[in-house]
Amino acid sequence: MSWTKNDYPSSFKNLPSKTKNKAIDIGNSLLDEGYEEDRAIPIAISQAEKWADNQSGSTKEEYVVFYKEDKWVLKKQGNKRPTNTFTTKEAAMDKGREFMKNRNITLIVEKQDGSIQQRINDN
After folding, report:
1. In angstroms, rounded to a whole number, what is the distance separating the alpha carbons of residues 73 and 67?
2. 12 forms bridges with which residues in the sheet?
3. Would you list the domain boundaries of the chain?
4. Alpha-helix runs per DSSP H in the chain
5. pTM of the model
6. Between these two residues, 91 and 16, which has the higher pLDDT value?
């Protein structure tokens, strides 16, 4: 039985979406080659995580959400000008997450005082 994006082993559920999709592809290939499911699952996870680590090398861009002058700003690290400004932090984070769907980025979210609240990676 092949796995899909909606029907996959429960041990895949906590993987980042891109890593999970890669694990599904690898797992399906292993099943096609005759591996048993209980052996294919850990191999697929391990190989997908290695793939994700290689994907997230030096090409990973960082975007930061921070507060400045009564606005929440989304800006690519190293750029002088902001990508966008927003009235709410949630709107800035939503836009950053939208970028993550199509790009290999890390989203750094700061609190209003400038300290880092969280780093979001979605390999």
Report:
1. 6
2. none
3. 10-55, 61-121
4. 17-32, 37-55, 89-102
5. 0.53
6. 91
